[in-house]
Design a protein that fits this description.
Alpha-Beta Plaits, 21% strand, UDP N-Acetylglucosamine Acyltransferase, domain 1, disordered C terminus, 24% helix, alpha/beta, 2 domains, homotrimer, 396 residues, 25 strands, eight-stranded mixed sheet, elongated, 9 helices
Chain lengths: 396, 396, 396
C-alpha cells in the first residue's frame, strides 16, 4: 500500500520508466451494456470520467494494476480494452491510497471512480465484463465500441476539438440497437421475444433505433445550455455553454456543434461548426460532409444569421446574413454591385474581389456578407451586411 | 365548522370586508418539486386547479385559513407563496364543509383539492414546503417559480388570452433543469453524483434540459386536439380545441398558439397567433418577437395557408396563401398588377392601396392575399387569393 | 387432441369444406388495451403475429375453436373480433399439438402465440376481453380498432403494399388518446383524476396525444434501418430495410414510406412513396394526399435528391434533383432550353416533350430532371441532371 504522495509519485515514475512504456493519449474506465443475447457483444460504453492527454499518473497506475493481475497492456495497438477484476480495483485503490480522502468534487476524478467501483463490487459483486479499462495509444480508425465512445466523449466534453479526431470506422464499430431510455437492446432480442413480450404487455418502449446514443445520455450540459429535446443532439456533438437547441426542425450531428453561445433552430450537419453569437434560424440547414459539400466542412463565423428555412452550403465568416428561404450553394451565381463590392472588400482586406458575379464558393469565409434575393428581379445578390461584426472588430 | 352554504357565504363576506382586503387576480394550490440538493430551491410547481379572476370565495377561505395559522398574506406584493401546513388544510376543510359532498367532477374544484390534500396528508404525512398556496395580486413581472407557473397555466388553459400577461422575468425566475419525465433534476445533482450513477447504471434518462416544462406535463388537451410529440409544445402555449400538431418540423412556443382548429406542421414562435381553419404547412416559420420582427407580434387570420417551408414575417388576414418555399418579410418588395390590386382593395375595403409595388409591412393583416414568386420572371407578386374568406365573410 | 400433421391437415380440410366457409384475407390474435374507465372501449390492439393472405390452416383452427366455444364467425362481415377464452386456447393448442415442439423462431408463429397465451393464462388467469382473435374477410372501410390495427400492421410489416388498402374510416375508428410509453390513456381518465394524480405526484408522463401509435411501438425494424426518434414514424408507415430517418425535420406518415434504402431528413406525407437510393434532404417536403396535391399521390423514383428545404408537389422519376430551397408544384411554370429538352427526351423516350415552358404537372414522373432556379434571372428552369440514373439504367 502506498502511504504518501511522494511514494505515489515515485511509483508512477517507476512505471513510466519501464522499457517501451508509453503514455496513452486517452483512457478511462467504463461500464459496458452487453447484448441481452450475447455477453461478449458490447452495445454501449458509459464512462463516468475520461482522460484526454492528461492524468498520466492514473494511467500508469491502471497499467501497473493490470500487470499485477497478469495482464500486459500492448501499447503498440491503437486501442486496448481490458475487463476489470476485483484484484485490479484493489490494487489501484492501494496505489491511490494517499488521495482517497481528498477525492471529492472536481479533485482526483479517476480515484473517485476506483472508490465507487470498490464500494459497488463490495455491495453487489460483479458481472464478468461489466467494467473495462480502455486505453487509446494512437488516434487510428475506430475498432471497438469502447474506444469509439471514448472519442465521442472527448468531442462532447470538448476535450478534443471538433474535426480533429479520426472517426473512420465508427459506423462499423457501433452496432445498430433499439434504445429504451439509456438502455440499448439487441434487435434480435426483440425479435426472439416479440410474442411473449407483446402478449405479457412487457414490450419495451423504444425511443429510437441508432448506432449512436444521444448527447444527454452521457453528457451533463452547462447551466446555461438548453436542449429542449434530447433527440436533437447526437452523442459526439459539442455544444459550447450558452447554446440553445430548440425542438422544431433542429439537429446537431456528431463531430459538429458550436464554439460559443448559439441559438440553434436548424440543422448543424456532421462536421459543421457555428461560432458565438450566431443564430441558425428555424429550419435552416448547414450542409455536412456526408452530403452536399464535396467533403469541405462548413464553418459559420460569429454573429451570423441563417434565416428561417435557409440553406448554407459554403463556409461563412462573421456577421453574415442569409435571408430566410434562400439557398447559398457552392455553385450559386451571386451578383454584387460596385459600391457593395467596395464595402465588402473593406470588410475583408485580404479578399480583393473584382467583378460583378461570383460563385458561392468564391465568397467562402468572408465577413459581413448579406445574401438576398432581389424580389423584383429574382436575382440573387450580395450586399455588405448592416450587422456589426462585433466580436472580431479588432481584426478589420 | 361551517354547517350551511349561508354560513359559508357570510364567512366569505366577513373575510372580504376586512380592511385592506383585496381579491387576488389569480390563486391556486400547487405541489412543489424542489432541488435534489436544496429543499428551498423550487424547480417546478404543479397546480391541479388554478383560479383566474374567479372563485374569490375560495381565495378568501384560503387567506383566512392562513391567518388562523398565524400567516398574514401581504396583498401589496404582486405575488405571495406560502407553505401549506396540516392546520391550514384542516381549517379550510372546516370552512368548505357544506360543499364537501357535492365537490365532484367540475363542481367546486378548489374544494376537491383540499379534500385530496387532507386525505394525502392523513395517508403520508407531509414534507415541509411540498405544497404551497399561491396568490397573484397584480400582473407584474414574474419573481417566483410558483407565480410564473400560475401565469403559464392561465395561458395554456385559456383562462388568459395570449399576449395579455406580463411575462417579464420568466426566464430569470425559472431555473434551467434536466427533465426526467415530469421530474426536474438539478444539474448540479447530476454533476455531483455522475460517477456513482453511471457506474451503478442508475443515471437517469434525460428527456430535455430547459427552464420551461412541456405543455403536456401540465395540461390535458381537448378530445379533438392532437399533439403527436410532447416536445413540440412548450408549457405556456395555448391550443384551441381541434388543433393538430405534427411531429416533423413544428413547434409552438409559450405565449403563442391557436384560436381555432389549426393544422400545425411548422413553427409558431413566441407571441404568434394563428386563427381557425388555417394551415401552418410543413416547415413553415412564423417569426416571433424574440427574433425577426422588431417586436411586432404576428397574427395569422382564419383559413390562411402557409405553404411548406414558407416564412411568414408579417401579420396576415383571413384566406391568405403564402406559396411553398417563399419568405414574406417586412421589407420584401412585392409587385401587384392593377387588376389584382382592384380585387384586393374590394376584399379589404379599408385598405385603399395604390401603386404597383409594396413592402411586406404595407400589406400587413390584409385578407385574401396570395403571395407567389413568378417562376418566369423571379418577381415576388401578390394576387387576390382564390380561397374563400370563409369565416369572416360578413365583414366584407 | 390432434396427433399427427396428417390428422391436422385433414382437420383443416374438413373445416374449410364446411358450407359457406371463407378464408379470411387477414387474421391474428391481439392483446387489447382498454380504457381505464370503460373495459369495453378499445384503445389499442397489439398483435404479436399477423397473417395476411397466408396461413389459412391456422385461421381454420381458430374459427373451429371459436365454434367449439359456441361462437359462429360471421364471414359476411368485413371484420370480426371475438374475445378469447381459456377454452378457445385449449381447443387450439390441442389442434396444433403436432407442431408444438417445432414452433420456435420463424416457424409456426401462430402456434407460438397460442403456446404463450396458454402459459400466460395458466400463470396469471385472464381479464375478460384482454385478448381477441380478429378476422378480416373483406378490405372494406375500417370499423373496429382491432381491424384498423391489423391493416396498419400489414402496411408496416410490408405484407401489403402502400396505398393498396382501404383505410377509410381509420380516423373514426381510432380514439384520440394520451400515450404514456406504449400505454394509451383515456383523456377522460386524466380529467377525472387530475387533482389526485397531480397532488400525489403520480401524473403520468404523456409522450403524445394521437389516434395512431408510433411505428416502433409495434414494429421491429431491420438491422440496417435506423429511426433516430420514434416520434418521426407513424404506425402504418412502411420502411424498407436500410432506410435512415433523421431526427431534425423529418416525418413519415401512415400509408407512406420507402421501397428501398432511403435517407430521410424531410417529410414523406401520407400516401407518398420514395424509391431506393433517394435522399429526402433536411426539411424537404413531399406533399401528401391530405393536402396540397388534389389527391394524386406522389411517388419519387430511385436515386433522386430532394435538396434541403425543397418542396416536391409532383411525382418524380429516377435520378432527379430538386435544388435546395425550391418548390416544384403542379402549377409551377418551368423553362427548358432546346438542348436540355433534347437530352430530357432522350432520357425519357416516351415523353416527346415539345415547347420551352412546362407546368410542373406536365413533367410528372420523368427521369433525370434537375430543377433549378437561375440565380441571375430568377427563372425556374429544368436541366437534364448530371446524376447517373443508376438503378434503372437498363430501362433507358
Amino acid at each position: 500500500m502506498i502511504r504518501t504522495t511522494d511514494e505515489f509519485k515515485t511509483l508512477v515514475e517507476e512505471i513510466q520508466a519501464q522499457p517501451n512504456y508509453k503514455n496513452p493519449i486517452a483512457f478511462g474506465i467504463c461500464r459496458i451494456d452487453a447484448s441481452q443475447l450475447d455477453n461478449e457483444k458490447v452495445l454501449q460504453a458509459t464512462y463516468p470520467v475520461i482522460n484526454w492527454n492528461e492524468n498520466f499518473g492514473s494511467a500508469a497506475i491502471f497499467i501497473a494494476a493490470l500487470k499485477s493481475c497478469g495482464i500486459e497492456v500492448d501499447n503498440t495497438q491503437s486501442e486496448v480494452s481490458v475487463n476489470i477484476t476485483f484484484d485490479f480495483v484493489k490494487n489501484a485503490i492501494d496505489s491511490f491510497n494517499p488521495y482517497l480522502a481528498e477525492a471529492v468534487g472536481d479533485a482526483h476524478r479517476n480515484v473517485q471512480v476506483i472508490i465507487q467501483l470498490f464500494q459497488l463490487l463490495l455491495d453487489d459483486g460483479m458481472k464478468e465484463g461489466e467494467f473495462r479499462v480502455v486505453f487509446l495509444f494512437e488516434d487510428a480508425a475506430c475498432v471497438s465500441v469502447e474506444a469509439t465512445y471514448l472519442k465521442l466523449y472527448a468531442l462532447s466534453q470538448a476535450k478534443a476539438e471538433l474535426r480533429t479526431l479520426n472517426l473512420n470506422g465508427a459506423f462499423g464499430a457501433l452496432p445498430n440497437v433499439a434504445w429504451h431510455g439509456n438502455t440499448p437492446i439487441d434487435l434480435d432480442y426483440l425479435r426472439i421475444n416479440e410474442i411473449e413480450l407483446k402478449l405479457r404487455n412487457e414490450y419495451p418502449e423504444i425511443d429510437f433505433v441508432d448506432k449512436f446514443p444521444r448527447f444527454l445520455q452521457h453528457i451533463i450540459p452547462a447551466d446555461n445550455t438548453r436542449i429542449l429535446e434530447t433527440a436533437k443532439v447526437r452523442f459526439g456533438a459539442q455544444l459550447h455553454a450558452g447554446t440553445t437547441v430548440m425542438p422544431g426542425a433542429s439537429y446537431i450531428n456528431f463531430n459538429a456543434g458550436t464554439t460559443g453561445s448559439v441559438m440553434v433552430e436548424g440543422r448543424i450537419s456532421s462536421s459543421a461548426i457555428v461560432g458565438a453569437g450566431s443564430d441558425v434560424g428555424g429550419g435552416a440547414s448547414i450542409l455536412g460532409v456526408l452530403s452536399g459539400t464535396d467533403g469541405n466542412p462548413i464553418s459559420v463565423g460569429q454573429n451570423t444569421l441563417l434565416g428561417a428555412n435557409s440553406t448554407c452550403g459554403i463556409p461563412l465568416g462573421d456577421a453574415c446574413i442569409i435571408d430566410a428561404g434562400l439557398a447559398v450553394l457552392e455553385g450559386t451565381k451571386l451578383s454584387i454591385s460596385t459600391d457593395q463590392l467596395e464595402k465588402i472588400n473593406i470588410a475583408n482586406p485580404e479578399a480583393n474581389l473584382t467583378g460583378d458575379t461570383f460563385k458561392g464558393k468564391e465568397l467562402s469565409s468572408l465577413n459581413g456578407l448579406h445574401f438576398r434575393q432581389d424580389s423584383i428581379s429574382g436575382k440573387m445578390i450580395v450586399l455588405r451586411s448592416t450587422r456589426e461584426i462585433k466580436l472580431n472588430a479588432d481584426l478589420h
